[in-house]
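Sequence in, structure out.
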Amino acid sequence: MAKANESGQNTAARPLTDCPFPKRYPSQLIRDDVFFMTLAYNQAIDAWRRDEVPVGAVIEYGGDVIAAAHNQVESVGDPTAHAEMIALTQASNALGDWRLNGATLFVTKEPCPMCSGAALMARLARVVYAVPDAKMGCLGGVADLNGIASINHHLTITRGVLEEDCLELLQLFFRERRKTSTSAVDESQSID
């Protein structure tokens, strides 16, 4: 039986699973959107290896990575343990403030309603995502929380950075999970 930590989260490590995609090591010399999205892509690979939906997130501030995370919903048994939510918490801790003015969130899939709302609440400057999500995305996909005129903060949104690579990763993950129907992954999140 898995042990729980003080917050009640499952602390047992999920088994590593084979991921056919290798991690990438971008040059540190050019810290552009592709560089930071590549780091988020590497986080998505870590999620796959932990049998989690392969979504990764990185938060950049002043040219430096202040947070890096991947989905941990299954491993900690928490529906809020999305890559974006974990990264926002890490970034807030790194800056010592919940307001992340000037920071950019890079994420491999368009944020869901919860994560889109959290990005707005955190006062991020930008959100950059790779793959649009027509089923659950709320920064232009099924809805656009950022487009609500009456909210007191708006994000700059950049779409499609490393889209093909991140889409291939997500699609293959769900294809493999459908082959092994015993998976506990919620296939309603499928990108196919």
